[in-house]
Amino acid sequence: MKGKILISFLIAGLFLVPVLSFSGPAQQNTERIYSGPKIVFDEKNNQDNSMNTQQGNNPKGKPQPPSPGPDKWAVVIGIADYQGSQNDLLYPDDDAMDMYNYLLLKGYPDSHIKLLTNRKATANAIVAAIDWMNTQETTATSECVFFYSGHGSTYDGYNDGDTEYTDECIVSYNLYLILDGQLRQKFDTFSSQKIAFIFDSCFSGGMDDLDDTGRVVDSACGENQLSWDGNQAMSNGVYTYYYMQGLSTYNTVEEAQAYATPLAHNAVQNMYDVEMDPQEYDSYTGDWQF
């Protein structure tokens, strides 16, 4: 009798194991708020030494000749899998792939795009990719895109060249903060008068430091708001999901933003019962068309 009871428990256990294994860790958070360490990337001191950059690693002071082909250049970043396991997101790498594929369709050669996803998007790699784009764009008519999807954060009291006490920033794979002022200093050396910045990250409405002549800055949310991952049917960030629909329909960043703004706002309100209001800072004359 005891043997039969033991066998029954073993059989029951076999059926329970798969059920328990599917439960796994808790569901990842859908808001893209960053809760990890806040360390500002210091390029001069090269704090980012966790991995050698694999893309966009041109030595400074040694400009490379522009590649043949259309004068169109892009840096596309999407980080869902962050270093460690506490800050992972759901769909930023999918966001980046969607933007990458869209740019290919719009005539950007593969060799003119630096695609950095997940562990490839270290702080060094991000900065090096921007430097690479700077060596390639050579005229005011060069077309440049900087797309980022992932964690956004804020940092207080760092002098990044502006008068703000609180700076907005993006977060690299290896958990360094790259401040809006640091990005501005990089892009202020560009010749291009046609640059589009697109951010699907928390607090990205504060990225207006990048606004300048010939530029459009599109963000997923307001300066004090969060950005959100979508559901499985979307398989994107909510903002990117609608922004890419807008781009595919209209092919201008202004119309894509106008299309995405009410749809992303309503979707986040319905899904999460919070406000998310995409922002745009537009200093480009006319429509910024791909």
Description:
Helix content is 31%, strand content 18%. The protein has helices at residues 2-23, 92-105, 123-136, 180-187, 238-250, 253-272, and strands at residues 39-40, 72-78, 113-117, 143-149, 152-156, 166-171, 176-179, 195-200, 215-219, 279-282. 46% of the residues are buried. The chain has one domain (72-282): Rossmann fold (3-Layer(aba) Sandwich). A six-stranded mixed beta sheet has the order 3-2-4-8-9-10, sandwiched between helices. Strands 1-7-6-5 form a four-stranded mixed beta sheet. The protein has 290 residues and is α/β, with parallel strands linked by helices. The protein contains six helices and ten strands. Helix 2 (92-105) links the parallel strand 2 (72-78) and strand 3 (113-117). It starts with a helix and ends in an 8-residue tail after the last strand.
Outline the fold blueprint.
Elements: H1 2-23, E1 39-40, E2 72-78, H2 92-105, E3 113-117, H3 123-136, E4 143-149, E5 152-156, E6 166-171, E7 176-179, H4 180-187, E8 195-200, E9 215-219, H5 238-250, H6 253-272, E10 279-282
Parallel strand pairs: 1-7, 2-3, 2-4, 4-8, 8-9
Antiparallel strand pairs: 5-6, 6-7, 9-10
Helix pairs in contact: 2-5, 5-6
Task: Kindly summarize this structure in a few lines.
By secondary structure, the protein is α/β, with parallel strands linked by helices. The chain has helices spanning 2-23, 92-105, 123-136, 180-187, 238-250, 253-272; strands at 39-40, 72-78, 113-117, 143-149, 152-156, 166-171, 176-179, 195-200, 215-219, 279-282.
